[in-house]
Structures are given as C-alpha cells and as structure tokens.
Amino acid sequence: MKFQIEDVTVYFPYDHIYPEQYAYMVELKRALDARGHCLLEMPTGTGKTIALLSLITSYTLSKPNNPVKLIYCTRTVHEMEKTLAELKLLHAYQTIHIGDRARILAVGLSSRKNLCVNSRVLAAENRDSVDASCRRLTASWVRVAAAANPNLPTCEFFEEYEKAGSNAVLPPGVYTLQDLRAYGKEKGWCPYFLARHMVQFANVVVYSYQYLLDPKVAGYISKEMQKESVVVFDEAHNIDNVCIEALSVSVRRQTLEGARRNLNKMRQEIEKFKATDAGRLRAEYNRLVEGLAQRGNLPFTDNWLSNPALPDDILKEAVPGNIRRAEHFLHVLRRLVQYLEGRLETDNVEKEGPVGFVASINTHAGIDQKTLKFCYDRLHSLMLTLEITDTDEFLHIQTICDFATLVGTYTRGFSIIIEPFDERMPHIPDPVLQLSCHDASLAIKPVFDRFQSVVITSGTLSPIDLYPRLLNFHPVVSRSFTMSLTRDCICPMVLTRGSDQLPVSTKFDMRSDLGVVRNYGRLLLEMASVVPDGIVCFFVSYSYMDGIVNSWNENGILKEIMQHKLVFIETQDVVETTLALDNYRKACDCGRGAIFFSVARGKVAEGIDFDRHYGRLVIMFGVPFQYTLSKILLARLEYLRDTFQIKEGDFLTFDALRQAAQCVGRVIRSKADYGMMIFADKRYSRHDKRSKLPGWILSHLRDAHLNLSTDMALHIAREFLRKMAQPYDRAGGSGRKTLLSQEDVEKMGDGILNEMQY
Amino acid sequence: MNNGNGRRLNGETEEDDDDEGSEGDLDAWERTYADERSWESLQEDESGLLRPVDNTTLYHAQYRRRIRSLSSQATTARIQKGLIRYLYIVVDLSRAAAEMDYRPSRMAVVAKHVEAFIREFFDQNPLSQLGLVTIKDGIAHCLTDLGGSPESHVKALMGKLECSGESSLQNALDLVHGYLNQIPSYGHREVLILYSALSTCDPGDILETIQKCKKSKMRCSVIGISAEIFICKHLCQETGGSYSVAMDESHFKELILEHAPPPPAIAEFAIANLIKMGFPQRAAESSIAICSCHKEAKVGGGYTCPRCKARVCELPTECRICGLTLISSPHLARSYHHLFPIVPFDEVSPSVLNDPHNRLPRSCFGCQQSFPNPGNKPSLRVACPKCKQHFCLDCDIYIHESLHNCPGCESFRHSKSPIATEE
Ligand code: SF4
Ligand SMILES: [Zn+2]
Ligand SMILES: [Zn+2]
Ligand SMILES: [Zn+2]
Ligand SMILES: [Zn+2]
Fold it and tell me: DSSP assignment, residue A452?
C-alpha cells in the first residue's frame, strides 16, 4: 500500500498496516525532519524493521535532492539477513510502483568468516584465523612475492577482483550476505573486499554494531560514511553494554605470557630484516616521523584495525621519538609487560583511575602518557613492516597495546581494577587486570556527533528516559508504542508466593532457603502439567541454576517434572547449548513437550526466540540483578552516580528489569502467537520494580495478577490456554481495529497516533 | 471491509459494556472454586478485575463462523457428502483424564458426551459405522470393532472407565490406521480423538505416522480437553480434520456434536458409488426368533433381513449373516438434509434495527419470545433470507443444527399449498 505522511509518500509492501507501525513511522519522520536523534520502543512482532525501512527509503525517495544514507546496525548475522530480506521485498514493491527511480544499492557487511568464498580459507574455525588465513594470501608483500614465484599461494578471488579494478562494482540491488557470496562466486571476485568497497557508495548498509561502535573497526570500515546518514541501532536495549565493552580490556597472566612470546618472535624478525633488508626498517622510521596519517596510503588489504582511541589529531602528530625505532619500541613494550606482570602479583584487590595508573607506569617503567597513546598504531605499523600475516598469533600483544593506548588517551570514565582471584572462587588464584570503561557515551559519542540522525530502537527500552542519560545525548523524539492486539495474547503474572503461601524470592538471604527452592520446584512441576509443548525457564545466574537444579534433583522434584516434559539445560559451552536447543525444539515438535533451563544475560536470553509452541510459558525465577559485589560494577555505579546523577539502585533495577523483559519477551514474536510470562519473585510486585517493565507488558499485567500464589497462577494458566486455543478473527472483528488498509490510513490520519502512545 | 467498518463504529460502546459487566464476573471466578478452598484474601483485590468470559456471544460468534464456512463450501461447488462413514473414536484414558477441572472428572464428562454423540451419530449417519479405541499406559486398545449398534459401544465404554499412565498418539493412530485401511473405498475413514493429555510419549517418529494417515486418507480430528498442542494441530492440518479445544463441558458437548453431521467429502472420494441396501420389515409383535446379533431368543420386536431372513434387533446395522446393509427408510430420509443444507441466516445490522421507519417484528418467529431492546448492543437477531422472518440466536442454532428446516419457510409453504411435504 501507499500512503502519505505529511510530505512523504510512503511505500509499504503489505496491504495492511498495524496502527502502531503507522505511528512509529510518523514519529520517525519527525526525527528525520528535525535532523536529530530518537529513541523508539516498540514490541517485537509488530513489524518494526519493515516500518523503519519503508519510511527511511521512502523519505529518501521523496527528497531526491539531499538523499540520506541508511546505516542499519544489527546484533547478529541472522538479524542482518532478515533485515536485508525484508528490504528486498520492499524494494521489489517500490520498483513496481515507481520503476527505476526506486533503484538502490543495499549491502550487508560482515566479517570474512561470513563472506569469504575461498574454501581453503574457510576451513579455519574462528573469525581471527579466517582473517589471518586471508591475510596470508592477500597481504601486499605476499602478492609481490607471488608475482615472482607462481608457486606461492594467493587467493584467486582477490586477484580477479584486483584485476577488474574500478570495474569491480556491484550493480544496484539488494544484497544479502548470501547474495554477495553467490555474486562473488559467479564473477570470481572476493565478496568481502567487494562489499567493503561498496559500503561507501551504497544507499543502505546493514552491518554489525561493532562496525560503528568499536573504534578499532569503525576506523577503517565506516570512516567514509557521509554525514547525511541515518544510523539505526536495532534491538538496542543493551547498547550501553556494547559501548563499554568496546572500550574495555582485560589482561590476565596468559595474556602477558603470550605477549612475551610475541615480543621474542618480533625481535627475531627484526634481526632477520636487519640482516637482509635494513632499508625497510629505515623507511618505516621515516614514515613515522611524518606522522601516522601516512597510513592511509597503505594498500588496503594491509589495512589494519585502527587506533582504538578516537582523536583524529593523533594521526597528524609525529610518533614520539623513543618508539620510532623498532628495537626501541620493543623495549618499551617489554618494560610495560614487565610492569603489568608486577601489578598482577598482588594479594589485594586494587582500584585505580587512569591518571594515577599512567603516573605510576611513568615512575616505575619510564613510559610516558604520550608514548602509551601511540602504542596501538606503532605496533601495527611494525607488524606491517615485519610482514607478519598470521595476525591471530599476535592477539596478545595487540591486547596489551590496546590497553596502553586506551589508558593513555582517556583520563576519565575508566578505572583499572586488579583482582587476585574471582570473588566467588577465592581459593583459585586467577589474577586479572581490567581496564573497564564506565561511560557508554564515550564510544557512541562520535556516532552522535558525526551523523545527522541516530535511531535507537528495541522492544524494551524502558524506562525510556534513562537511555539519553546513559548515552549522554538529546533525542528529539523519544516514544514508546503499544502493540495493538486482536486478543489478549500475552498473559504476564507476578507470582509472589508458593502453594504454601510463603513468599518466594532470589534475594540473597532467601536464596538458599529450602522452602523457596521447593516452592519454585513445585511451581514448575504444576505448570509442566498444564502447559502444553515448550516451557522456558530463566534463572538469575549459572551458579544459581546449578544449585537449584541440584536440589530439585535431590528432593525428587526434577524426576516428577520429567514425567511431564523432557528437560534441557543451557551451558557455557556454545556447541552443547546449540545441541540442547535442537533437541528441545524436536521434543516440542513431536508432542513430547520440553522445558529449557536458561540464564538471564546468557546467549539464549539474548538471541534465541521461543515463539509459538516452542514457548507457551516463560518463567523468570528471581530478579536478574547483576552480581553486585563485582568490583567493576561498583566502579561503574559510582561513576554513574557522580557523573550522570543516576542512583545505584535505579540503575541496578533498570538493568535487572530490562534483562527480565528481554527474557520473557522471547515467547512472543508475532501477534498470532500467544504465551504466558511468570515473574516469580515477590519483589516484582513492588511498584518501583514493576514500573520499569516495558509498557506493552505492563498494559497486560492486570492488578489481579500482581500477587499470585502457585495455585492461582495455575488456574489462570488453564483458563488462558483454553481461551487462546479458540479460533479468532485476525483482523480484529470485535471492535478494536488492528489492521489498517490504505483507505483506513487515509481516513484516520493522525487519530491513530494518539491511540498508540503511552 | 464494509463489515469491519460497521463494527468499528460500535467499538467504543462495546468496550464500555465490558467494563460494566466485569462486576458480574466474580461469579465465574467463584464458581470454579465453589468447592475448593476459600479465597478470602484473593477476592478482596480481585473485585472487578477479571474480565468476564461472556460465553454466549462467544459461542454464537463461533457458530456463525462455522455456518459461514460450511455454506461457503456448499456454494462454491456442488459437493458430495460422505454418507457412509467409518469413524473411530479414540478416547484418551491416560493419567491426565483423571483430572478434575471438569466435574466429576474429565473422563466421566468425556464418556457422558461420547455416549450422546454415538446416538446422535447413528441418528444422522444411519449408513455409517463406528468403533472405539482407548489409550492407556501409553498403549492403544481397541474397545469395540466397527459396528452399527450404539448400545454395544456405549456399554463397552462405560465398563472401561479408569485411567492411568501416559498417552501415546502414535500408538493410537497406528492401531486405527491398521483397521481403517481395510475398509472399502466408498467409505470415509475418520478418526475423532478426544485428548486429555498435554503430551504424547511415542515409541517412534509420530510425524511419519501422520504422513501414513494422510496417505490413507484418514481424516483425523482432535478435540482437546485442556490446551492447544502443536502436534495435534499439525495432525489435523495434515489430514484435513478439525482441531478444537473445549472451554468447558457445554462447549465440549457442542464441539463433539459438531462431528455428527458428515464432513465434506474428500475430493478423491467423490466418485459416485452404488451400494446395496436392505430395508427390513419389522417383525410381528408376537413372533419369536433368535436374533443374529445377541444370539438370544427374543419375542417380538426386531427386524428381518430381506435377503437371508435373519433377525436383528436394531437398525441400522449390517446383517451378520449376509453382510447386507440394513436400514430403515426414515433413517435414509434424515440423511438427506446434509445434501440440501439450509441457508445460513443473515445478521440484522444495528443500523436497520435503529431505523425508526422500519417496523420490525418484536418477537422471534420460532419461539415467540420477544427480542430485547436493541439499544447499543450488537444485533441479537437474525433473519432468514428467504422468508424474511426474524429469529433469536438460540432458535438460529437449533434450526441449523437440529431441525434442518426453517419454520418460516415451512409455514409459508404450508399456507400456500396445503399438501405437507415429507422431509
Ligand atoms: S580475499 Fe576474499 S575470498 Fe580470498 S581469502 Fe580473503 S576473504 Fe576469502
Ligand atoms: Zn439382538
Ligand atoms: Zn442378511
Ligand atoms: Zn426463538
Ligand atoms: Zn425461512
């Protein structure tokens, strides 16, 4: 359908639109008009992605004079492919309507692991080794050598791509990763380099968060992007964590040992070059005198992850004299590693700010702040000079330099925390030195500054006013939308008491209470006997899950549960978990019924959908607070309080509740679906906790469901499941209008808006 | 879309209704708990917060949907109905059937309505046969073979009402498949599964079994007692059956009786077949004969097979001696209405109701009860498109599901031509 939002003609590839999608587009358009940033919360299953894509592409179409580029960031490759598939549909629809004018180029970009088509390289198991294998075939010096000696292996796809030169372009169209690989194979061109090249010309780019937020990657992938871009972060409820992770580094003993090995290897290489090709080292020296900006002239296959600290001016500065010579630089690094080793030899937990830490490095190791700042780039320059291709072998020293550069660049928003052992396992010495970033706004600031509009959107962004404070920006629009439903297909409940009327909670003092453990067990058992197919359970942590499942096993509850359904457990091992998930789905498919035990903040909670019969009920056992004794968390809380005036309690509750909302949100992925959510902890009944849940859950949480015991919940579950099993009218026959046709949209116009907002 | 718009105008008023009604809901809540423990603490904060399950409108809406789908099928093509059905009823007697969310227990309720269904089934499908299978301890048992006598089925079922163990859908399907695969091709193979359990513990791959059933054109339908189960839905979708879940006892009754009239014939079966039947004579009151079904001497009653002269006690049945299908002519006549279904009635739109110029009948033509004042409520009456008489919702259902004649049209016809037409 086609309709008008103010001066923009929106092309929407379906015959009907949900009212909330329409409202979402209107708000989005206002943000684009204002050239500002926005925050939009809309539940999953409402077609957020297609609404976004339709509006932004249509917006560009109706303003041909200043086209905006769309940069769409997703968390996973799977989401990336889904987004591109939707865009393809949309594009086909637009082409039918306006023909060639709709022409766009849209590409997905991912790591070599997902794009490479060279079967020899693909055999490597992880991302780093695929990258390294590719470099071994394509680094400039390898290719020079190969030109002389045809027996040396190169990548034929890269050679072909190079040969095609400026002819190697993608014709307009929408390319998923799969399409890219297919096109690359057909043409004999490397899809990875082709996609990377096309990113700057494409109208729509879909890639991972890291490409914008992690300064190491952003530097070489995203630096060409024009200012007139709309950046979308989808599923962005954890964006602050992604930001701080991008700027955090942890150093362990293994890291330092590895770094030492790397340094030795490099010293040998330097000796070798000195003997054979001393000119090369001299050339590097000269280049460094002129500053790092020269790096831009390197052949692009050699292009490195760039400086993790952002300041541009650093590139123009000359590299400090004491590290210009390769040997000298190695000496500096060796001293640094030694210093860090010394710091790890401590029996106490230590916490320090970057300024103090840098001062102490200066006194003990004689390395000043400016030198530290240049470490990362200096290292890469050296690795290029030494023609090191197996980059995956040198990760340790890279970590050290990354650390050095960060600590040398930032004076606030970070702390260095040294812990001699894990709090939870004090008898096992496992010293770790962590540079942890507390300020999510640091990594995202350049994105806000550089691009015209940044859209942060997710199914759970509540409370919506906290995000602007955490990320330190001023949205021109921030809104939360409901989900229009033809029937009440979600049924959230707060369970505060077990069947014996005693309260249940995972609060610290109640955690190991046998009564609570038993009550939780009985809750699951009873639910397993009335809920068909799949049930998903989330626990607050791995250790809690292990503990409670053990006690259930001991007192026989687990056995009883297994009479009703099979039980599968998430572990920290990805392969094992994938297998468990597969079997879980199979058990749901064949009618056996199954339960999946999983952990909030785990992989499953973030990325796996339990829609339809794969999840008719999700139980959140407890409130998933972060481990509050963690030194890093404490430091972050302190920083948030001092800098952004966010109270500790507020932040912790917010963080716990968004995780809980994420977990329970896994069961509803579309409107035709239905599912129940049980928040099993007495603390959820308190207003300050509950009110932080997203609006679309809250609006279904009736007052009557706020303080339930197991048997009441059981009764509600029975009724709900029976009701949901009845046939229903998709279009919403009973008065509520939940699907709008073109005609409806024209008629109702802004009326829809008021209905859909909180 | 027109329809939808009309309703949307009504939207607001309807929602108001909901809120008013919610006070009364306490009853529904209390009822369920009538004889369980008391809920003083609960009721306090419950008041008015649970929405009423307004069953009457819900049921009627569902009934309308059903009728509409039936009639749309009827109009799109002249379809043939399967008048000769071979139906297996599978009763799940696993552990779950002992649950007491239905009073006194699920299995008692199921048995009660299966009995009623069996009678209704033979009433409406005099030419058909039925058998019973139960699932217990993960194993399927054949309770009665295919046969035409309601009494023997009912008796067999009532004698076996105890439950235990798991349920296995696959075992039941395999067993039934073995039986139904042997029946002649003109018959319709049907399975009606009354499923209490929420899972199925199968020895093998049930998906294969479902494909097998699909291939042998077994129409499998399931009525769930507690909740929607994926595998059941899948089974029904694959084999062309219907899947429904009962809300409560009366809904269950309704759902099971829906299976009494013959389903639309599966396309491949729609080859016309001629079947030999006998119309036996009722034996004289005083004659004494040994019946072939019970092997007992009986005085009077019973029927004599026209071909081999054997005595049978009840119709319809298949003669035990010569295998002829025996049936009485009224039976056959009653089956006809499936071939000539009565058209669905139209809802009288609120705009017509509220139009003061329209003089509408005040009471239902069927039962003579007066209609409630239309007010803001959605239409509570329907009209026959042929005779234009108005009926209440209850009569609407009764006319279409039991009577199979429109009283309006009939009386119209009677007044015109005094010759009563036999059905
Ligand atoms: S150049 Fe491309 S195709 Fe060749 S190894 Fe590298 S990523 Fe793979
Ligand atoms: Zn007899
Ligand atoms: Zn005979
Ligand atoms: Zn009536
Ligand atoms: Zn009539």
Answer: S
Return the ∠ at Cα B336 (arms to B334 and B340), rounded to 5°.
130
Our measurement of the distance from residue A118's CA atom to the centroid of its chain's CA atoms, rounded to an integer in Å, reads 28
Mutate to test the interface with B, among A486, A734, A739 (most CBs of B within 10 A): A734
Kindly report the protein residue whose alpha carbon is nearest to atom 7 of ligand 1: A116
Atom number of ligand 1 nearest to Cα A112: 7
Span A602-640, pLDDT tens digits: 888 887 889 889 999 999 999 999 888 888 899 999 999
Q: Which residue from A613, A704, A722 is facing B247, i.e. has the nearest CB? A: A722
Instruction: Pick the residue whose CA is nearest to atom 4 on ligand 1.
Output: A155
Q: Which of A131, A157, A181 to mutate to test the pocket of ligand 1 (most atoms within 8 A of CB)?
A: A157
User: Is A702 at the interface with chain B, CB within 8 A?
Assistant: yes
Instruction: Confirm if B311 and B146 have CB atoms less than 8 A apart.
Output: no
> B73-87, pLDDT tens digit by residue?
444 444 445 567 889
ipTM of the complex as predicted: 0.83
Contact A564, A593 (CB under 8 A): yes
Q: What is the DSSP letter of A294?
A: G
Distance (Å) from CA A120 to ligand 1 centroid: 10
Other beta carbons within 10 Å of A223 = 12
Backbone phi and psi for residue A109, each to the nearest 5 degrees, phi listed first: -130, 135
- Is this model's pTM higher than 0.90 or not? no
DSSP states of A392-438 as a string?
Answer: GGGHHHHHHHHHHHHHHH-SSSEEEEEEEE-TT-TTSEEEEEEEEE-
Ligand positioned closest to the Cα atom of B368: 4
Contact between chains at A590 and B11 (C-beta distance less than 8 A): no
Backbone φ and ψ of A116, nearest 5°: -60, 145
Pocket of ligand 1 (CB under 6 A): A 112, 116-118, 121, 134, 137-138, 155, 157-158, 190, 192-193
Q: Residue A358: left (phi > 0), alpha (psi -120 to 50), or beta?
A: alpha
Confidence band (pLDDT; 50, 70, 90) for A204? very high
Q: Which two structure tokens, joined as six digits, stand for B372?
A: 């409630």
Distances in whole angstroms, Cα of residue B196 to Cα of each of A530, A577, A599, B59, B171? 11, 32, 32, 22, 16
Contacts 24+ apart (CB under 8 A), B64-71: B64/B344, B64/B347, B65/A727, B66/B258, B67/B344, B67/B400, B68/B344, B70/B341, B70/B344, B71/B341, B71/B343, B71/B344
